[in-house]
Design brief:
Number of strands: 4
CATH superfamily: Glutaredoxin
Order of helices and strands: EHEEEH
CATH architecture: 3-Layer(aba) Sandwich
Helix content: 10-25%
Structural class: alpha+beta
Shape: globular
Strand order of the largest sheet: 2-1-3-4
Number of domains: 1
Largest sheet: 4 strands, mixed
CATH class: Alpha Beta
């Protein structure tokens, strides 16, 4: 008999933040994303920072057209938000944590 997979009630959020070097916008986006996650997803998230100055080929996979950009890989569906991530309401709606008003 195969063991059944146990579904976690609180899924782990996997986020990718695409940046270009340590530009002011990229640094601001990372700071804002960390603050947002600590407030709204505490203990349930992973952020992978991808520097396109060092790994430009990675932009194609997530169809990155502008930076900084955050991509929610999990939970599905994939969501993409462009900018410094300073608007909390925009992040809540964009990441599907709150319905659009």
């Amino acid at each position: 008999m195969k063991p059944k997979a146990i579904k976690c009630a609180t899924p782990l959020w996997q986020l990718r933040l695409y940046v270009m070097d340590e530009t002011p916008k990229s640094v601001t986006a990372l700071t804002n994303l960390k603050k947002f996650c600590e407030t709204h997803l505490k203990g349930r998230y992973r952020i992978k920072v991808i520097d396109l100055a060092k790994e430009p080929q990675l932009a194609k996979g997530d169809q990155i057209l502008a930076i900084p950009t955050v991509v929610r890989k999990l939970p599905k569906p994939v969501r993409t938000i462009i900018g410094t991530l300073s608007d909390t309401e925009h992040l809540l709606v964009g990441l599907d944590l709150r319905a659009a008003v």
